């Protein structure tokens, strides 16, 4: 049977790689909102990126201005707080070192390649260089995910994927919540060009523009985007897809380890509830409130997983 600390390292490896990928995607989305949309969002866009990543307090302490260069540097290269991409990749690499023999050569190489993206780099550069940097991070994290899918289907594989699934659910909820934090400029209307730019950018961040067009024929609407990211089983990054993967992996781990309990029950209840969720109900009850409740519940599930597999032991 796998040691608890080994399972913990693999689980956190999955979480940190997924988090680095999310930060890269969020930065790309914010750059597009600030620089490439018909009405740049400016400080509001970068303030929203900090709010979504829950790094506002750290940034205030940092004392930087709400500009692209300063916020991007903080979210990517700043080693002074635990949420930056470089810190996520460093922690992922340290966890990978602790379980080196449990990983395939391809998975280990992908982690090193992602970490080396930041070697001897201390500036993010202009907009083009920023987009190139986050694209490089995305390429390497995708390489890691591909390597994981080629690994032997055993506890190592499942613990990594469990971490990825829990982190991805949190990230998608936070990304969708971007829309709450970015207010429309004065004079712009719901359904207008700027509003559509913002919803489209959210879809681009989860690589779901084509998926949206396949599944919805009545054009871009907030209700459909919300439905896709919350309740569409066809989209791997949706909340329901992440929830169902979590249930499946916990089931596989229970079969192999005999460890099942609180986390399994919480995961099954969440997946069943999400399977019945409809966008109209979410909008009526308040999207921001719904997503904040989901984020809290996901955190509770994370804690239950730690207790069930004795990660602290």
UniProtKB/TrEMBL annotation:
InterPro entries the record matches: ATP-dep_Glu-Cys_Ligase-2, DUF403
Domain DUF403: residue ranges: 2-309
Name by which UniProt lists this protein: Alpha-E domain-containing protein
